[in-house]
Amino acid sequence: MKFYYAPGTISVTTGLLLQEAGLDHTPVALNFADGDQTKPDYLALNPKGRVPALVTDQGILTETGAIAEFIAAQVPDKGLVPADPWQAAQMRSVCYYLAATMHVNHAHGPRGIRWADSDAALADMKAKMPRTMADSCTFIEENCALAPFVMGEQMTIADPWLFAICCWLEMDKVDVDRFPRIKAHRAMMAARPSAAAIRDYGLLTKDFA
Question: Could you give the CA distance from residue 115 to residue 128 in angstroms, rounded to a whole number?
């Protein structure tokens, strides 16, 4: 498999899961500053012009959630998606919140141009983003087990996903000390061998251990 990523992005989720699953793959870096994601070769793989993308022998997968579920299905013994349907649904409710709310909250800062054009509108979104990100942290802090993983004792696909988004909190001007359980989860994930592996090739650009 080939795994297309950009450093420090949501593709951290996929990189960690590939390592946790022990699946053979080749990481391929995209330089967003040079516009690699908009060049014809990459758009032929992923017309969305975003990361991650995973090239498999069955075809190309995009979207963090789809890739995460695919990886988990390759190694069912690792329990990355709970076998119990209720627990699996609870885990997915966290994942969908991360994708549809928390990630979007973050994007209103650096990616506001997706929703607005005027300087005033962009400034308003950027100014509000620290509060909405903190609100999302409050929700996660109060409603997820984080003991030590999102679902309790077993790591699932929700854990690398939460970690990837929480790597942005300082950039988003969120006081992480207000959220000690999230902070502990982030440090735990950063200390795993999977994090060291993706740090070695430049996907993870920070050290929270």
Answer: 14
CB 81 within 8 A of CB 157: yes
> Would you give the end-to-end CA distance of the chain in angstroms?
29
Collapse the DSSP code of 53 into the 3-class scheme (helix H, G, I; strand E, B; otherwise coil) and give the result: strand
Residue 40: how many CA atoms within 13 Å on its side-chain side? Answer: 0
pTM above 0.70, yes or no: yes
Task: Report strand pairing: 53-56 vs 59-62.
Answer: antiparallel
Rounded to whole angstroms, how far apart are CA atoms 118 and 107?
16
- Listed in sequence order, the residues at least 6 apart from 97 whose beta carbon sits closer than 8 Å to its beta carbon are 136, 139
- The H-or-E segment that residue 5 falls in is strand 2-5
> What pLDDT score was predicted for residue 180?
98
